[in-house]
Amino acid sequence: MAAPRSFLWTRRIFLTLLTTFVVLPVYVMISSSLKPLEDVSGKFEWIPSGITLRPYADIWETVPLADYFVNSIVVAGAATVFSVAVAIFAAYAVSRYSFRGKRVFTVTVLSTQMFPGILFLLPLFLIYVNLGNATGIALFGSREGLILTYLTFSLPFSIWMLTGYFDSIPRELDEAAKVDGCGPVKALFRVIIPAAKPGIVAVAIYAFMTAWGEVLFASVMTTDTTRTLAVGLQGYATLNDVYWNQVMAASLVVSVPVVVGFLLLQRYLVAGLTAGAVK
Asked: Exposure winner among 98, 145, 254, 269, fewest CB in 10 A?
């Protein structure tokens, strides 16, 4: 049965408005990044009168953007690897085994997502500072401390998500692996992990994006040498002026790794997020 014409026109109008709403800010960023500073600071023009690529060269000189890039890649990459590695073992144990306190563990993992991040800012700050004074382990102001901080936020969701994905994998695969002589760990690496690749990729994308764009903890837990991109972009605003064209150019450059990674892995992300919805 064909859809009514009114429905088709309503859908077209809605999709057009939605596309405009999404694309318009991107166009403003791109056009502003190609303008001289005096043109950006004045009245906004939809069609730039003069186009220059100078802001894309200046962003590396105004602030040490390359150092911030390295810090963000190291922190986000390490947080992603550790989060996925720990979540795989924890989710496999919760999914495949029954143990005392399993329900309490599951509820505790989910309950951590109910609290806002700012609630943990002061406690973590005091823990890092006091631990550094007592043991000499410098977590405050270091990449390691920021990685550990991001693990506290990405791990609970990662464990919960992978547990649901492992539950959707038939247990007959585990039994078949045992028949072939595989132990629990060997079965996990040779059977379960290959079958759970979409879910693992989805968890990795979530952990990376969480760490890449986080601002609150990065602005408090870092110093000038360990500052990440999300905080480093503030360096384009000085007491006298704001380099808006460089802000837009740097924002576009910073977004490239996430956008490219998302486009390359989106099929795994969709499959991982919808896994277990129908059984």
From this structure: 98
CA distances from 44 to 21, 35, 41 (A): 18, 10, 8
Give 75's pLDDT tier (boundaries 50, 70, 90).
Answer: very high
pLDDT in tens, 161-208: 888 888 888 888 878 888 878 788 888 888 888 888 888 888 888 888
Inter-residue contact 141 to 72 (CB < 8 Å): no
Distance of CA 204 to the CA centre of its chain: 8
Q: Can you list the pairs that 109-113 forms with residues at least 24 positions away whose Cβ atoms lie under 8 Å? A: 109/156, 109/159, 109/160, 110/156, 110/160, 112/152, 112/156, 113/156, 113/157
Q: Is residue 226 left, alpha or beta, with left meaning phi > 0 and alpha meaning psi from -120 to 50?
A: alpha
For residues 162 and 171, the answer to whether their CB atoms sit within 8 Å is no
pLDDT digit string, tens, across residues 85-131? 999 998 888 888 888 888 888 888 777 777 777 888 888 888 888 88
Enter the tokens of residue 249: 């150019």
- Rounded Cα distance between 146 and 14, Å, is 42
CA 112 to chain centre: 18
